[in-house]
Amino acid sequence: MSNAKSIAEINERIARRDAVVLTAQEVCDAVLGGEDITLKDVDVVTTATRAIMSGTYAVLSFPVGEPCSFTRAERAWINGIPASVGPCPNERLGIIDLMVFGTSHSKEKPNYGGGHLFRDLVEGSDVQVEVETDAGKSFTKAIRLENIPYARIFSTRNAFKNYVAFVNPRNAPLPTIFSTLDFLPNLTCATVSGCGQINPIKNDPNLETIGIGTRVLINGAQGFVIGTGSRSMASRPNLLGLADMHQMSQEYMGGFVTSAGPECIGSWAVPIPVLGESILENIKKLDRDIPLPIMDVNVRQTICNTSYEDVWGDTDLETKFDPSKCINCISCTVEPVCPMRAITFEGDRVERIKERCFNCGLCITQCVGGAFGGSLGAINFEGRRVPVILRQSDRARAIKLAEDLKQQILDGSFRMTQMVDRI
Questions:
Q1: What is the pTM (predicted TM-score) of this model?
Q2: Is CATH 3.30.70.20 the classification given to domain 320-373?
């Protein structure tokens, strides 16, 4: 007798309040504890990831002047970040449509990019819009997200089925988006991306439940999958989606500074309805079962493989901060290199803005006094252990986002959808 379920049946059970909804972390903890999880034990598993997601852009449409005050805009910037005008000309309407890349860099603010701008908007901060018209006229206008009727985040590719670790086996340091500082040479260190066992596509690698029309959370806002993204392939799929910026939470987004300039942070949470045994078996796979390719950062080619156990097994998900251990350096070594601007140093007082912290761990190796601590693990590479010094995925916040989604499903504010088509 089959125990297979349907999304409609699961939604009915949720409405009756007798469905079992677990986070991916809860399932994996149970498996690690020796429990035998069956189809009868769980109906929905919530998954999540938070990481650097370069393939992110915003589409914004808003008024910047009175009707007929200009014919059309030719160029625009927001906080110095270039914005592509169009495709709609909005002739003589006083309105502009803009597309802003999450990876674009400000012409005015060093180490400020699209990801920073998106978070500033969601936080409710004023931003400066600069417009050049087809008549050569220039003007600026201060706006907030509340003044932008249409504001959507889209992705060209987000939420990869995990990612990779990088090392630099050559003799020279390398500026790269995969390291906040120039990437140290001679296999001195490793950086890593991917949330491992809680990653959405890891839990549904065959995309049996994730498809066109699947409702998800993007940066905390309800949105939808609309396909697979660029560079997606059967072995390493990724997702294309959209959501309304007005509903997003700044906690799950932002900019991240690298040695090649600022990058963009994105967060996704995806419900996986447990429809059958094949889905459940993938959900139960642990970090030790998930391959982690190790790539040469110079050429982006895989040189060997390990597993996500090296990164997330017996390590600290959150970086620790003990201000009493600060030795009051004349110049703080951590503040200028923090990729999230989460460290402040004024006089003899060091503070961490925990809401901004990405738990990347760079501060641990940069603080000479040991005020920052935690275990980031090490990559097993050809008989040697290469320490991880930077994580470009924030599993601690991803776990929190998966828990947020679980609660929304249980309280009825998030309703799972049946996909329109496979991807």
A1: 0.96
A2: yes
